[in-house]
Fold this sequence. Notes:
The complex is a heterodimer.
Chain A: E1 11-17, H1 21-29, E2 37-43, E3 50-54, E4 57-61, H2 63-66, E5 69-73
Antiparallel strand pairs in A: 1-2, 1-5, 2-3, 3-4
Chain B: H1 2-16, E1 23-29, H2 35-43, E2 60-66, E3 69-75, H3 87-98, E4 103-109, H4 113-124, E5 130-135, H5 137-142, E6 145-147, H6 149-156, E7 160-162, H7 171-184, H8 195-211, H9 220-228, H10 232-237, H11 243-260, H12 264-283, E8 284-286, H13 294-301, H14 306-348, H15 353-389, H16 392-405, H17 413-419, H18 423-429, H19 436-448, H20 452-466, H21 468-492, E9 501-504, H22 512-547, H23 550-556, H24 558-564, H25 571-579, H26 581-592, H27 603-615, H28 620-630, H29 632-660
Parallel strand pairs in B: 1-3, 1-4, 4-5, 5-7
Antiparallel strand pairs in B: 2-3, 6-8
Amino acid sequence: MTLDQIEAGRTALVTEIIGGFRIRQRLNCLGLHRGDRIRVKRSGIMGGPILVELNGTEVAIGRGMAKKIVVTLS
Amino acid sequence: MNRLRRLLIRVMPRKHAEMGAHRKIVLVGQPNCGKSTLFNEVAGYRSVVSNFSGATVEYTRSHVKVGSEIYDLVDLPGTYSLSFLDEAEQEAQKFLLNRKIDVIINVVDASLLSRSLELTLQLTELEIPMVLCLNMMDEAARKGIQIDPKTLSRRLGIPVVATIASKGKGIRDLFETAARTAHEGLKARHIRGHRDVELIIARLSRYLKQNLRKRVSFSTHLLATKLLEQDPFFSDIIEGEDSAVHQTVKHYRKELAQAHGRSSDEVIAAERHSLSMSLFEEAVQIDKPVAHLRDRVDAVLMHPFWGYVFLLSILFLFFNLIFRLGGLAEAPLLAIFDKLVNLITAELGTDTLTGVIVVNAVQGLGGGIAIVLPYLFPFLMGLALLEDIGYLPRVAFLMDGLMHRIGLHGKAVIPAILGYGCNVPAVMATRILDSPRDRFIASFIAAMVPCAARMTIIFGLVGYYLGGNAALALYLINFVVIGLSGRILSRLLPEVTPGMILEMPTYQIPRLKSALMKTWFRMKDFIVIAMPLLVAGSIMLGFIQLWNISDGINRLLVPVTGVLGLPREVGITLIFGVLRKELSMLMLFQALGTQHIDTVLTSGQILVFSVFVIFYIPCVATMGALGRQIGWRGMALIVGFTFVLAMLMGVLTRGAAALIG
Lengths: 74, 661
């Protein structure tokens, strides 16, 4: 499943980031890598972004981007 | 890509030309690491601090005295890595790769050490003397992160200094260490990762060193790493090389990918990540974090319902406050300028050449100082405070869903909000977006947002003659039209936007000094670009009146005024509106020869005039900013579109007014 399908409050493991150099680069820069454990804190209404907690920071990820992050629930 | 590069080349040498022969200390760090706060502590008035990534888009510089020697201090825009993804980062990268630098101070948010070390590792590859500055140590302690600077220093082979820039702690030590490092030329140790990856990088690096025809100004080791990472910028550098070079690069990429079962860029990124994680684990001890207010505040401010209630209330209060404060200052300032104009008129008369020039120059100056600045200053100041507190990223979060309807994402709301103050900094702020298409649409929107000058028209004409509700309605109509235009535009330029990724920084207590500096920095855009135009425009009008040529101009504009059903004399004011928006209102009084517009124009005509002026052609200063930001063709497109739109809106308003009577 992908990150946009995770409900708020759940923790998930990033198993893959679909996309090219730029998308991976962007996510890596903000501290999101394959193999990272992340927690979904809240998700915006009207197709708004998903707020995740990772490695001590919080990052808002747009829904389109979240669809490219493959995760497994843990 | 080329357009970006041209833009950079134009910006950089001009700024750089002033640089003296001093040794150069350069501050590098990720957005929100407190770099600019640090810079301001030592440098004085030039820099801008922000709690929103991408705020420092051009680098700022100053002098700093350490011991008896003076150094050039450069504050680069925040960058997450040496590969750029937006223009601000590109500027930082370009500087780091091409300039002679004596020492880098890598500023790091200590509470985000593991992530920040990835940039640190890339910087060590530049082979420039470096100091690591662990900033925000108090925030790290609050999160339960205990860092041992000695371990980091030993592993990286560079000095590590702990600071709390917002409290002025450790700054002296930092700069003394940096000065010493510059003199000793101490470079970072190369930290080794997995053997097979290292081997491939080393081989490619050696190959490049021997076979590149073009000389590069940085280490081939860095070039090799970035080529394996498939960074498009570095790939461009070897574009003109022999096909053998390209073959070799491809070969090593493949070798790396095959050995690890994923693409070579992922291998390099994972390598860097694991290196910084192991550094982090070695140097850090994690304790229990102290509970932070943040979660409770966010629970309200980012709430799916209350978040929007608060957003609207904050904006409502914000704009109300601006009007109150602006109004307080406007009347006395206007009185001063009126007196001044009267004095000069009595002294010089209005029919001599000097008289015309001086009186109109003072009137133009008065328009800017008494009518625009009283609103612009509180607006920018309030915005700076909201920004420093860390509220703007929350706004972006809340607005992302809505902004997607017009084909943009949440970050694009920032230039739009800025636009309500002045369109010039708003257009500049579109740099925080990473796709050129998004920047184009966002600039378009930013230029259509009613700025403080147009606000004076809405309130001075519509609000004054037709009432506050009519003024509010005009704002709403404008909002809807902007939304629709954005939607149409994004349909015409279909492209999947990369989507938003935005860090939510912790809330900070704003520092007055930094908010004031930021306000000043943005106001400078208005003072430097718009004020001279205002004065020049005013003088021009003086001559037009003196020589009686306004009739001719009015006759030329009859096609416009005729369609809109406005008196012919109004034509000339439209020309002045292009110089500065509020001029069209001020000139309206002069052109019609009365301060009581309602005696010569019907309510419908006042409305048509206001609607037209609000929508048509951005002012000259905004055109300049647009040209710089999205190119002159893009600017021409916006000018053309807004003109047609304004005509359409004007005719519609005329029709509606006729129906209502």
